[in-house]
Amino acid sequence: MTLTKFKTVSNVVVPALLFVVSVFSAPAVYADDNPQQLVIDTTNKMFAKLKAEKANLEKSPELIYGMVSEIVLPHFDFITMSKWVLAKNWRTASRAQKIGFIKAFRELMVRTYSVALLEYTDKEIKYKPLRDDVSKGDVTVRTLAQNDKGEPIAINYSLHKKKKGWKVYDVAVEGVSLIANYRTSFATEIKQKGLDALIARLQKHNRKKEA
Prior knowledge:
By secondary structure, this protein is of the alpha+beta class. The protein has one domain (3-210): Nuclear Transport Factor 2, Chain: A (Roll). 59% of the residues lie in helices and 16% in strands. It contains nine helices and five strands, in the order αααααααβββββαα. The protein has helices at residues 3-23, 35-52, 54-59, 63-71, 78-86, 88-92, 95-118, 178-193, 195-210; strands spanning 125-127, 138-146, 152-162, 165-173, 176-177. A five-stranded antiparallel sheet has the order 1-2-3-4-5. A hairpin with a 5-residue loop joins strand 2 (138-146) and strand 3 (152-162). Helix 7 runs parallel beside helix 9 (195-210). The longest helix has 24 residues, at 95-118. It is globular. The protein starts with a helix and ends with a helix. Residues 1-10 and 21-31 have low confidence and may be disordered.
């Protein structure tokens, strides 16, 4: 994937993940609650956390990586996300390739929205009524957030109920799916260079972000 294409993907992913960080950081006590209430409660908790750690993060921005890994990652279904992102390439991938991609993709998410999160400012979030039947174990939590210009952005979170609670498996910003976005760009890269090359590039990109 070219640098231009990567920037295009990031333009969609960064705002999505910025708000994912704020709403999917709940402790295990909320695992069996209504996902709509989970979003509302944990948004407030994350806002408070950001404010409390603001001074420390200004001195040591790298602390954000550990915070995100500890607070956010347990609430993502990265295996399902990786399967859908790779699509047919998942079926032909070796076990080592699958593990390598999941780790690299997860780290990409952490690095991408950690950078965005460091520049976070309070933004109003409005919640639309939950339309889906929670008992079916698959819902979409629909919200309206504000961008830097104060304009509303529709951000929808897809969650399914797993043994350990609700897990997010996709995010759509203004109708653009994070999974579909990456699937398209990664498919092109895999076709041209192969899955191993994609994994290697993601690993290299993550190391640069860390540096």
